[in-house]
Design a protein that fits this description.
Number of strands: 5
Distance between the termini: 125 Å
Radius of gyration: 35 Å
Oligomer: single chain
Structural class: alpha+beta
Largest sheet: 5 strands, antiparallel
Number of helices: 9
Order of helices and strands: HHHHHHHHEEEEEH
Strand order of the largest sheet: 4-3-2-1-5
Strand content: 5-15%
Shape: elongated
Amino acid sequence: MRSDEGGVAPTPCAHHPIDVGTGQPLRGGGNANRSPFVDGASPLSPSSLETVRRIAESVIIALVSSAGLYLVGSVYVDAYYGRLAIEATSLDLPPPYVALQSVHALWGLLDYPLLLLLAYILYRAIASPSRRLGQSLGRARERFPRLLPVLANLIVVVPLLLDAAASLRERELPHRSVLTEINSVLGYVGLILLVYVLWLGWEQRRFLLSDVRARKLVPIALVFIAYLLSALVTTGVVAELAAVDLLTGNSPASLRVEFVTKPGVLSELAEQELLLVAARNGAYYVVVREPSPPSPWATSYAIPFTSVEAARVRPFTAGTT
């Protein structure tokens, strides 16, 4: 193709859009609306990823807390009815009721976190770097770089270690209960936790709380397992004490029950002082009252509704006045 001056016109080339502001061709063939996924860009900003991470952590904490409350409630139910010689599974208690029993052991669940919070507040109040005690601790850490982390780590876990030591000295419970197994596991977990905090402070020269705040899995898992087992042991003890109060008639919930049974049905019941425990699944669950302190083994009965013609129930205190 020739131009008007007789010269040769330039060879046509592919059309490239021009940036009006700079006069330079646009990159990417003008696909200004190209998806960032094509260029390998991250689909989420760092702030969005942080939000997703926080939501996931909240969901995990909620699930673990719910499972922990149900576990605490189930241990309470097992220890309570086990002390009364009643199989808890025969009552077929609903899950919400089982989880609600964790309220009885609320202090056992909160004492260790409250102690840690109190220790942290005291540390921040009297051992800050601007205070004399904080400066003394700083010099002590420079002088004893291994000893100070070890002592600090032991202070953090000493309540859990004391519970573990008590569980190792605990005798076999006289009645079948999951509390026996929990005591055994707590003892071993306490030994592992002790070895870990000593290693962390002496060899690594690190503080346990610093690793927990850094969300390291091993210290968080060890402390949480030891804390949960300790809370379960406390729950079982509280449940057994409540069962003993019921068994001896010292509980406000103690109900004296008298049955009129059909002929030939457990005639020995008329000679027993019975306390009502539950009425579920077509049966009355009762236990024979014992003087304080009670024997390790309680005597209980499961009396079908069909074997009873009438039942008289009243508070136990009313029957003794």
